[in-house]
Amino acid sequence: MFENRVIILDGEDEVSNTVESSSWADVRKLREIYFKKTDLWYLKDRWDSLTSIQKGELNAFRQTMRDLPQEHSDATQAMSAFPSPESWF
Q: How far is CA 19 from the centre of its chain?
């Protein structure tokens, strides 16, 4: 999950821990980055090298990103619900 969290420390003591608000432009930009990164996996030679589990993970990740604007009325909530990419993407 991604969020714009700001943690302010004084030495080892936490002074503040807040989530900054996000805009839909922030969400859109992050989605575009991950769509571009994962687009390459749909090329036939790469797609054929994936296991069925990896194909499912990739498809689910992209679908979750597509659904964010419909499932969240607030950009900050959408950013907090942003799916975590698999390490192999």
A: 16
Dist. CA 77–CA 59, nearest whole Å? 22
Residue with tokens 């679908």: 63
In a domain? residue 66: yes
Answer whether 0.85 is exceeded by the pTM: no
Q: Quote the tokens at residue 39.
A: 């687009």
Cβ-contact 35, 66 below 8 angstroms: no
For the chain, the 3-state helix, strand and coil shares in percent, each to the nearest 5, are 55, 15, 30
Q: How far apart are CA 24 and CA 79, in angstroms?
A: 9
In terms of residue numbers, what domain contains 57?
A: 5-80
Tally of structural domains, the chain: 1
> 71 CB contacts (<8 Å, ≥6 apart)?
78, 81
pLDDT digits (tens, 9 = 90+) for 16-72: 666 678 889 989 999 999 999 999 999 999 999 999 999 999 999 999 999 999 999
